[in-house]
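[job 4471] stage=fold_predict status=RUNNING
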Amino acid sequence: MSDTAGMPTGPERPDPDGTPPEPPVTYAPGAGSSPTGAGVARRRRRWLRWTAMGAAGLVLVAAGAGWAVYNKLDGNITKDTDAAAELARYEKERPTPLVHDAQNILLIGSDTRAGRGNKKYGRDRGTQRSDTTILLHLAADRRSATAVSIPRDVMVDLPSCRKPDGSRTRAQFAQFNWAYEFGGTACTIRTVEKMTKIRVDHHMVVDFAGFKDMVDAVDGVQVCLKRPINDSDAHLKIAAGRQTLNGEQALGYVRARKSIGNGSDTDRMDRQQQFLAALVNKVQSNDVLLNPAKLYPVLDAATSSLTTDPGLASLRGLYELVRGMRNIPTEQVQFLTVPRRSYVYDANRDELVEPAAAELFTRLRTDAPLQVTRQVPDPAPRNEQAEGDEDYADTGEYDDSQDYDGSGDYESDEKPDDPSRTPSPAPTFRGNTAAGTTCE
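[job 4471] inference complete, writing structure tokens
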């Protein structure tokens, strides 16, 4: 037993191994568990470290969710590679773009009965036609957009087209929507380019289900009906007055022909244009674009319903397109129908009115301005027109106070070097703008 008597006690007591004693520790009031606050600093560093890790985790989760959403929307779009390959075979015959940055997009509404939710509109006979075709021209400065409806029954020159089974049709003079039935999108694009001399830069195809989803995604579109509608063929029964149509009702409304208006295809195209104008207004409203909860369903419906050329078959491609359009004033988003009248040999078909149609196509091809109005004064009756002006009869769709010489210019009594001469006004066509409302 060792004798510890007489050894120092307390802090001065040396360790058995001879280590010098530690100096006494004094704890200052409020200093925590460390005389220098080191414990507080450690806890603060740990808190900051965990906060940073939590924030990083949230960023990763958000980024992952954002990437998942992007991939879903991006994957919704169907790429039309067959049409692209077919068009590439005829590149030499296609028109050359004349105005840099101007865009011409062909919008095709397919009446196919195949696919989700489309069978109830009729039997699927393995064929399809373009129920609606619109040539959308975006001005190079993106200050205006012009949507031109092409009547499905207008008689045009169809090129020889490749059919789905690999065989080819013969070139022929026939109604326009046969092009889509014969050779799908590529044949339709080639027909439009042959008719207008306008290069189609992109195309989009949407079916019945896609159209309905778009309308439902914006919580319906408002129309105003002068009379009630009860059309069993269009699956449509709506009371008169101001009504908000859901997707199913909207589809019946834009497709109905015999039960609304005068039963003509022209009247139906007017109704389609007015509805699209109301839809543009609804999508451009802050209630949709600034509300993620409403914007996502719109994007999901839009991308899910589209078949596009490879250049647009991505969310990035569509975004670039929409970004250029979002600041176009609604009064500069114009809708009209190509000048047409009943075909002289068949009242159930249409024919283009010249030179009005040629002037419209020239304006679009050269990115020149034009105007639309709901009511264009009717031209003089055929028997009251001067010889050589008979092409203006019965259209009610084109108005110009100057004589047209057929070359893209106008004849005038003024001398070419007359300093008082002012530029010719833009021609006026019958149509409407997105600023107008269907409930006037």
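[job 4471] summary: Confidence is low (pLDDT under 50) at residues 4-8, 113-125, 377-423.
[job 4471] exit 0
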